[in-house]
Amino acid sequence: MKKFFLGALACAIFSSCGPPKYAAYVSVDSDWRGSVPWGWHVMTDREATHYAQTNFIGPFEPDFYLGVPSFSVRWYNYSYPRRLPDGLLEMYSSADDFIQQTLSYVYGPKYEMPQPVHEITAGGRKAKHFVVLSPIPVPSSTRWGTSSSAQTGETVNFRQHAYVVVPLKRGFYVLVYPATRDGYKLYEPQFNQLVNTFSPVLEGPAGPKAE
Prior knowledge:
This protein is 18% helix and 42% strand. It is α+β, with helices and mostly antiparallel strands and 211 residues long. The strands form three sheets. Strands 3, 4, 5, 8, 9, 10, 11 and 12 form an eight-stranded antiparallel sheet that branches. A three-stranded antiparallel sheet has the order 1-2-13. It has a two-stranded antiparallel sheet with strand order 6-7. Strand 6 and strand 7 form a beta hairpin. The protein is globular. Residues 1-15 have low confidence and may be disordered.
């Protein structure tokens, strides 16, 4: 308590003090931890122990779709069917299967890859990273984070999304940065910070200890 009080007092005296850039975050199920931008809102959704998603939502930024920058961390059990809001089912037999299905069904058949699928290290573990560039039509009344297609003149969300897939024995984690082409560079360093500090503690919610 004394150290905290003195630190707060020093910040009150020296106006150069400000909030930290990052916060050390532990998931609600204590299954993973990492550094996230300070002050961002957090929302978590979970289905039993086979799926979980934590969203980190940043301040208004007009270059992001609907003005909302965000990151997410997801957990998927291998080969467990999950019903999506539109009634379709998703199921992934491996981390590579997730990557293939995401490219085919979310962004296909036409997309570019500024960063093709390649291996990286995320928090000391082997992972796969890729970045997808893909426009998708949106209502013309959409106000933020859109542009006009040079080919069709349609209003589009020019998606530039980054993924880091971290496979474990029971399932895999996916770190996602769903940016736009114009906004991507704004929070790329913060996403990289999350990737570099990401540490699975358990293999998903209520799972065994991550080896």
